[in-house]
Input
Amino acid sequence: MRKNAFLAFCFLLFAFSSFSQQIKRYNPDTIRTIVIDSAVNIRSHHLNAQDFIDAVLADTGFYKAFRDMKKYSFIAENRIYSYDKKNRINGKIYRKIQYSHIGGKHKTEYLAKRDSGSMYKSNGKYQLYTVEMFDYIFNNAYNSDFVKGPELDEGGGKNATYKQKLKTLLFAPGHKVTGIPFISSKSEIFSKDMREYYLYEFARGKYLDTIPVYRFKVIRKPSTANNDVVINELTTIFDTRNFQILGRNVNLRYSNLFFSFDVQMNIELIKISDELVPAKITYQGSWDVPFHKTERASFLIMHKDYRE
Output
């Protein structure tokens, strides 16, 4: 049971690698939404590296943004692709969904729904754990049972604990994620033991053409061995006016005899009625676990037309 649960977590986590030729057209990189003006000397702004680190570690805004979706009606467009071993598309899912919040009740209406290829098993369940992850993290975000933070919760089936660990890794990068072989201590990139492996870069620019932002980038040093770290890059976008986090780009990469993965994740938030809510989420990649078929998939998730 424990072995199966760990493999399930591997499937959920290691579902993303580089498919630049397919995903590039969706502009997946949070950084590309930002026009960088220049590198910035943070001391001249009366800041230091620890200010940014403390803000990243203390942030709960990303998870709160997903919870706050329940206050609004909005339209979600979800595109999911699976790929064969030659990176050719062999499965597609498209959903355009109207989520409504009326009189304290939630309503889900499919405006468009198209599937092709081998995305489902004969019993109607998803072929890919990648898509199961998508369904759990993002579709459930609008349901009333998706209310706790990214810390571990009890219950929810044999894979629940591993899904909760995944939530921590997605919504609270930089924190230690316990109970994952080879990875747990490496996820805590701001710890005393891990800081020596990273460089910090600071820049300023504009987000969505109008919002002044800082870009804080944590990058693996070129001299660092690949398997000394699991987070290769963590880029965080801060509103200069209030230090709120508006965007995040995470690249996770690791390889050993048991598994390998290369994960790219981007999440962008926008402000509606003084509250942050998700606007764009993208993933791309693959996992490779022994004795299991390699999964390759990419997602583009767009939320728009928010209204109370």
